[in-house]
């Protein structure tokens, strides 16, 4: 019988590239020639590309134990030294998975792979630590930055994001100024990060000055994200005219308007009670070839619900489906919440029950909103049914609401249902001691004979 042709290192790389299943790719990498001649052969000569491909697949799939096995195997290679980019990628995978210590370990072990560390791998480590929220570790790592090179634009961008993420905007501005004084050009990402944070902190005037300085001194146009952040900030402080002025400025400067810009303005119009201007803005969107997305529609749904115009909100849902824009949980939760707060608990319950038919499965927030709404409306029996389904689906209710439910049932004298609810809460390990003491206290005052009966009921359940 003729033996099958052996897979070459080049062929292995090709097969790894097209294999989408990381587990099968790993199996192929570990045993590229399972049907070859059983006689002793030379070790398979893996190429650097094969290592790069399998590391990437395992990293994206978060198969980190297997990834480290491959790294250990690669360390034994004598034919080549792995390039720095491979370790940068590995640290990035660990950063996304919030595995800060593993990212640090990879960086520390790079010399044992005969790979020199430069500012590029240092930046990868810094960014991984930032994504893990390890700001103190970032500061410690920064103390040795001179060993790896001079900080570049990427280094400063990461630091600015880190300071903004840790609510230290003043230091973020200092880093931004230092970056420019060192002759490094901030990117749109840098500017966008600072502008967004300034606007979030209601320092919109500073954000506008920064944007204008960027254009005047650097001669560079801010991108759509910068404009969207500024418009949102301006709308938040009631400066609608300035926000629309920025939108017109984008048109004049031929900067592409996206759905985020229009969604911000539509939301602001509805909050300001200027509902009649929304259709014109939607028409303008269409003229510029910008289709409304889920965020746009959700802004409209939220605005109509604020006005208690639920029919308009339902029409928006129907329009989303007609235009191929799938509603998400937020689309439905906004309506459920508004119906409950408007006292329309029955309509909210029916709408909730209709969600599976609409292709949406309720999330934790959906359950909590309906449960809270039913409790607030005094519909404790209905709330108890929703609670039972919540617990079955693994959705933990808030203590304050379950306490209110039990208290309401006690006041109604429905002790049988109280026992069922307490049993469900106990099984889910969310029965608070205060709730139990409240039930016992109520029974002792009003129906002492029911105390032992309730305890017996709970014991049986």
TrEMBL record:
InterPro entries per the record?
A: PPR_P_subfamily (IPR050872), PPR_rpt (IPR002885), TPR-like_helical_dom_sf (IPR011990)
Supply the PROSITE patterns for this chain.
PPR
- Domain of life assignment: Eukaryota
- Work out whether the entry's keyword set contains Repeat: yes
PPR repeats span: 152-186, 223-257, 258-292, 293-327, 328-362, 363-397
Pfam families to which the protein is assigned, alphabetical:
PPR (PF01535), PPR_1 (PF12854), PPR_2 (PF13041)
- Which keywords annotate this record? Repeat
Which family does the similarity line name?
Answer: Belongs to the PPR family. P subfamily.
Its recorded name reads Putative tetratricopeptide-like helical domain-containing protein
